[in-house]
Amino acid sequence: MKKWTLAAMAVLSVLAGSVLAEATDARRAAAEELLNVMKTPEMIANSFDNVKQMIPGQIKQMTGLAGQTNMPPDVHSQIQKMMDLMAEEFSWDKMKDDFITLYAETFTEQEMKDIITFYRSPAGQSFVDKQPELMKRSMAMNQKVMLRVMPKIRTMAEDLKPKPAPVSNATPAAK
Questions:
Q1: Cβ atoms within 10 A of the Cβ of 103, count?
Q2: What stretch of H or E contains 171?
Q3: pLDDT band at 117 (very low <50, low <70, confident <90, very high)
């Protein structure tokens, strides 16, 4: 009797595992569909393109505000290489599975289906299509704030520097 009970439990465990795997596969499929409807691959590529375009101007403004005038002549090419590396490492091809997992673990299958319905609607497509412009304008807005804040941060950083100890002109007392 114990053998039959153990065998039945083993069969139920296998069946439960396959149902769970199907649910996971369905969630992952919904997550992938959602990411595609949201045009995530294009948005990732556009984000890096926008950042790459803005970096040279930001460096020039930030270094000017910080009073740095001795930047290495190849700083822009080095930053370009760093941005290219980041664009490659954060590319859709390398990040796709992680994004799918993130969405599948965060949203239920039904939630993703509902969100997909929104993104397929005219309003949803308008939202997706306008996201790159919103991101670009948001970055420009943040840059303006940083330009305004940088002098204050520089002053605060100067205040944090250790002050030199006062020099005493007094001679030690004779014994």
A1: 22
A2: none
A3: very high
